Amino acid sequence: MASQQNGDNPIFDESFEFQINLPELAMVRFVVLDDDFIGDEFIGQYTIPLECLQPGYRHVPLQSLTGEDLPHAKFRLYVRYGEERMNLENVQEKNK
């Protein structure tokens, strides 16, 4: 994923959509990497049960590979859940 160059505060403009069949068992793992010519340098990670991830804007703390909190390391994300997957066909049918 590319980000806008913003020094210590990069901005990622990425969206992900996926279907979840057993939300009570699902976990979400966020991994932040510094992608450059040499390789992907690990910055931080965070894993959370999906059911604990509430809709809306969230600040997510980053942890080391061993699970230790990284001071001043976090990212912001927006979470939205939906029952129906929106695609062009659904939009066209709703507009009739």
Automatic annotation (TrEMBL):
InterPro entries in the record: C2_dom, C2_domain_sf, PI-PLC_fam
Boundaries of every C2 domain copy: 1-64
Gene3D superfamilies: C2 domain (2.60.40.150)
Classification via Pfam families: C2
Molecular function via GO: phosphatidylinositol-4,5-bisphosphate phospholipase C activity
Entry superkingdom: Eukaryota
CDD domains listed in its UniProt record: C2_PLC_like (cd00275)
One GO process term, biological-process aspect: phosphatidylinositol-mediated signaling
PROSITE patterns: C2
PANTHER family: INACTIVE PHOSPHOLIPASE C-LIKE PROTEIN 2 (PTHR10336:SF84), PHOSPHOINOSITIDE-SPECIFIC PHOSPHOLIPASE C FAMILY PROTEIN (PTHR10336)
Name of protein: C2 domain-containing protein
Lineage, highest ranks first: Eukaryota, Metazoa, Chordata, Craniata, Vertebrata
